[in-house]
Amino acid sequence: MARRSTHWRLQTCKSPTLVQAHVSKNGKTSLTLAPDKKVHGKFTRKAPAAIQSDSKSEDEPLATSKAHSADADVDSTDSLDNREDEELEDELEMLDAASIKQTLVAERPSFATKSLNNPEDSDKDLISAEVDSSKCAKARQAEVPKWVDNKNSSDTTLGLDITPGGPTLNGTTRASVDYDAVNAEWPVKAHYVLPQSGARTIPVTQQPHSMCALINAAINQTSGDAVFIDAYPSPTTINDHFCEMLIDLANNLDFESLSLCLQSDSVLLDHLSRVLSNCLSSLCCAVKKITSPKVESSFKLEGTVAEHCEKVKSLITGGTYIYPQNNGGLIYCTKPYHHPMIISTLRECFFSAVRESLASRHASRFKSSIKDGPLSKELELPMAMVAMVATATYATLNDWNTGYFKKSKFNADAYKDVYRGHELVINDILAKRPHAYHCLMADLYSEVV
Fold first, then answer.
1. CA nearest 399: which of 131, 130, 122?
2. Of the four listed, 37, 116, 147, 318, which is most buried by Cβ atoms within 10 Å?
3. What SS3 string covers the chain?
4. For the chain, what is the total number of helices (H) and then of strands (E)?
5. Could you count the other beta carbons within 10 Å of the beta carbon of residue 105?
6. pTM (predicted TM-score)
7. What whole-number distance in Å separates Cα of residue 180 and Cα of residue 191?
8. Residue 18, H or E segment
9. Is a pLDDT exceeding 90 seen at residue 125?
10. Cα dist from 411 to 214, 282, 357, 373, whole Å
11. Which residue has the higher pLDDT, 54 or 280?
12. Which ranges of 304-377 does DSSP label H, i.e. alpha helix?
């Protein structure tokens, strides 16, 4: 299948929609049109390679291209494709930036007030959702994995490859009597190594081969579901989902005894559910890790501490951090989620790796939301992937909300509402303007591959 090759280029026509963000003294952000500062021209997209009949490059200037001047007769198929592209552009131009802003602001978490003159206060939690000293909250914090840098590899997506080992019971795990007791009733393929003394999760690399193969497959499935379905699944249903997935995978791998064990051993299911929950946390933390060094340059946080604070507050409260801007600070409100930082993070986190990238492992899951016609061949980025990166961008901007950079822990509970807000925005576009949704997501796919 030919890959979509879409980009935006300037033609002499009507101008794109540009808006100027204004921040009032009380911190409220308003978006207004800027008619006197418009860039004259219209952004149009190249037709997909699969439906282009002209072999000439569309990157040639229209006024100087001899091929276009000599070719006065335009093929009817090309004309239809051009009209279709123009219709898609009209769909994007009708996106309501004010509505998107309202949705994002309604879903974002509330922040504690803080004095700029006392930057040491930044050690405290700034997000009210994290101020929870309950036992459940402490247990969730204890299960958040630590991210370990690997200087010899640029694959910062997830270190998910697991080398099967086997039970090493001489001082590395619990006593062998516990291992024998828990596995006594089951065949060898259903055996597993218990957590070490004081640990809550099983040692993955020390599991027997069959258990290690199952965990590898489950982690791969979980990471794919996170970026294609939901990165923040409901805690009330996630364990049931993990249970069904693990049993299905065991059956697919022909581990019949292990499948039977999973259906009756609730303790084993709890151990494996913790491993998969940690996988989700690691993926979200990895995305934020990639955004952290990009924020200062991408959003041009220059000047004094107070100016940093004002700009970050404007970006967060106005929801404008998802839009690209020109040099004058004007926003292209018809291109949500096209900010260069979001695009570079999508590419680096999911499509670039020394080893096999997450996108390549799940290449068959990329689809088009349009079922018929030429547009059905244009692949799209999944909604969950885009919302995950936008949420990590928000969280990294929050690290600058005092005017200084102070790295904070990425807590899924704290930023779940931000993720849901982006999910609502994208779902609203899909429901009301399905062609605009396709145009948006297909263009993002073309930008990152």
1. 122
2. 318
3. CCCCCCCEEEECCCCCCEEEEEECCCCCEEEEECHHHCCCCEEEECCCHHHCCCCCCCCCCCCCCHHHHHCCCCCHHHHHHHHHHHHHHHHHHCCCHHHHHHHHHHHCCCECCCCCCCHHHHHCCCEHHHCCCCHHHHHHHHHCCCCCCCCCCCCCCCCCCCCCCCCCCCCCCCCHHHHHHHHCCCCHHHCCCCCCCCCCCCCHHHCCHHHHHHHHHHHHHHHHHHHHCCCCCCCCCHHHHHHHHHHHHHHHCCCHHHHHHHHHCHHHHHHHHHHHHHHHHHHHHHHHHHHCCCHHHHCCCCCCHHHHHHHHHHHHHHCHHHCCECCCCCEECCCCCCCHHHHHHHHHHHHCCCCCCHHHHCHHHCCCCCCCCHHHHCCCCCHHHHHHHHHHHHHHHHCCCCCCCCCCCCCHHHHHHHHHHHHHHHHHHHHHCHHHHHHHHHHHHHHHC
4. 16, 5
5. 15
6. 0.67
7. 9
8. strand 18-23
9. no
10. 28, 11, 25, 43
11. 280
12. 305-318, 340-346, 358-361
Give tens-digit pLDDT for 310-362.
999 999 999 999 999 888 778 888 899 999 999 999 999 999 877 789 999 99
CB atoms inside a 10 Å sphere around CB 120:
9
CA 74 vs CA 6, 71, 82, 88: distances in Å: 21, 7, 11, 21
Tokens of 243: 């249970």
pLDDT in tens, 182-202: 787 788 888 888 888 778 888
Residue 162 has pLDDT above 50, yes or no: no
Q: Two tokens at 92? A: 């994007």
